[in-house]
Write a structure and sequence with these properties.
single chain, 510 residues, mainly beta, Immunoglobulin-like, 4 domains, ten-stranded antiparallel sheet, five-stranded antiparallel sheet, 35 strands, disordered N terminus
């Protein structure tokens, strides 16, 4: 999980079952498949790069030596669902296959024949999904793609898997509603014949969102939390519930079998529906669940989600939940009048939020570059995001600032006196390199490479042939398109790199 000075605000989409009990799992049942959304970025082609962590529980009493996951955009999920059977696994249409994986985003294979478990780099039923030939290209995701596999034995044959740092290219821009659909299945044979399967688990990633803040328990100050909920997209009405759990084992990862202490519960009947223009924010609420561990993280579970399209008047109920984790802020005392500034980064933009009494106080946003000693005013006032006619108002301010900065609010009273909020550190945006090669495979006179380099940075490109020899090199390039028309037939490795990272893509030239 990404850690911030004041809070973590990451999404976990959890497929809810009535209760979290080990007895619910069996050799052919996947329990609580989940997706944790780390970040989204747009690539040079205009599509959305979605980085997620996957997790689920499976019972291995009767084998399950291999576990396979497939992910699609919901719009391209096979219709009807793929009919899994002993000798019928999903494949691409290459070489006469069934075509179920033509539009899949990723295939992930867990191998339990090793200790610890590992991720396989080849999909035995159809190795072509990971070659450089359409319709399925580079689909198998493993450690070479940056994936991290974590395995926890829950007892009674139940294994909890976490697969972190999975990057998926979702068609279209990041400001759309992003919905995935997936299948998971298991096998006892290296040939990957199907033993059992679970098809069609879905999750909604960006409606609604929950942000939380947690204030530290220390001398003269009781532990407190506050949460706010908003809908990112217009024309939707959202009904929901909220449950808050404590990080019992101090692991900083929510585990439904361990983190069972419920700090608070808010049924949907007790919370107002939200839209993009009418978010909800609770006040600061004191809590205590332990004499010694009140400063452990809190997990806020947003569930029972019903989304109504206000244009079509259709309502959809989602079985996933959304989890936000907060870290207790112990660095500063509770500000006067509970004036607390929270925020989140969206690419090169910083979004700031505060929840204050409805009165005549005015607010100025101030920021400071960490290497400098002076505060400068970034903006006046606010954009009101909710609270009309209520005792409290919610405000938001957006600052275009890709670098790491400190922020605070100056609350100016009608008589000219003023007070400050807490100081909030927003870490800088660190965009990554990327490289796109097309067509692939290509003929000798039509090779095009698109380099995606962060703003104000440069990178180098190397072209390496199948013998390991560097046949081309470009230095100090920025984002743009590069053309090659004189590479002979064969397989090449196109590498883009700078001082921070290196990415390699495979190119086949006919």
């Amino acid at each position: 999980m990404k850690k911030f000075t004041l809070s973590i605000s990451v999404l976990l989409l959890w497929m809810l079952l009535p209760k979290y009990t080990a007895a619910q799992t069996s050799a052919c049942t996947f329990v609580s498949p989940a997706v944790e959304l780390n970040y989204t970025n747009s690539n040079i082609a205009g599509d959305c790069i979605v980085n997620v962590n996957l997790s689920f529980i499976i019972n291995i009493n009767n084998g399950n030596k291999y576990t396979v996951l497939h992910l699609w955009p919901e719009s391209t999920y096979p219709n009807p669902s793929f009919p899994y059977a002993l000798n019928n696994e999903p494949k691409s249409s290459q070489n006469g296959g069934n075509g179920a994986l033509n539009n899949a985003l990723a295939t992930i294979i867990i191998n339990r024949n090793t200790n610890p478990a590992t991720l396989l780099s080849t999909y035995a039923p159809d190795p072509t999904i990971d070659d450089n030939t359409l319709p399925a290209i580079n689909q198998v995701k493993d450690a070479s793609d940056g994936l991290i596999l974590k395995v926890t034995d829950m007892g009674n044959g139940n294994i909890y898997y976490q697969i972190e740092n999975v990057s998926l290219v979702y068609p279209g821009a990041c400001n759309q509603i992003i919905k995935f659909k997936g299948d998971a299945w298991s096998s006892n044979a290296a040939s990957l014949n199907v033993q059992c399967s679970m098809v069609g688990f879905t999750y909604l990633s960006n409606i609604p969102t929950l942000n939380g803040i947690q204030l530290c328990q220390k001398s003269g100050q009781q532990s407190q939390y506050r949460f706010s909920i908003s809908a990112q997209q217009p024309n939707y009405l959202v009904d929901y519930s909220v449950d808050i759990f404590a990080d019992v084992d101090s692991s900083k990862d929510f585990n439904p079998f361990i983190d069972t202490v419920r700090v608070a519960s808010y049924p949907s009947s007790s919370l107002p529906d939200i839209t993009s223009t009418t978010p909800y924010s609770s006040g600061f609420i004191p809590f205590s669940w332990s004499a010694t561990h009140n400063n452990n993280d809190l997990f806020y579970i947003l569930g029972n989600i019903k989304v109504t399209d206000l244009i079509s008047s259709t309502t959809t109920t989602y079985s996933n939940t959304i989890l936000t984790t907060t870290v207790a802020d112990c660095s500063s005392p509770l500000p006067l009048n509970n004036l607390v500034l929270t925020g989140k980064r969206e690419g090169n933009w910083v979004r700031l939020f505060w929840h204050v009494p409805n009165d005549d106080t005015k607010y100025a946003i101030e920021k400071q570059i960490p290497e400098q000693s002076t505060w400068k005013q970034a903006g006046i006032e606010k954009m009101k995001t909710g609270g009309e006619g209520l005792a409290f108002d919610d405000y938001a301010y957006t600052d275009m600032e890709p670098a790491t900065c400190l922020y605070r609010l100056r609350a100016i009273n009608p008589d000219g006196s003023f007070d400050y909020s807490n100081t909030l550190r927003m870490n800088g945006n660190n965009p990554s390199l990327n490289l796109y090669v097309f067509p692939n495979p290509a003929s000798q006179n039509e090779i095009r490479i698109m380099a995606d380099v962060p703003l104000n940075e440069v990178a180098n490109i190397s072209v390496i042939n199948g013998l390991g020899q560097e046949v081309r090199q470009l230095k100090n390039i920025s984002s743009g398109t590069i053309y090659f028309n004189d590479l002979s037939s064969g397989v090449y490795y196109i590498c883009i790199y700078n001082n921070h990272e290196k990415i390699a893509k495979t190119l086949a030239v006919k």
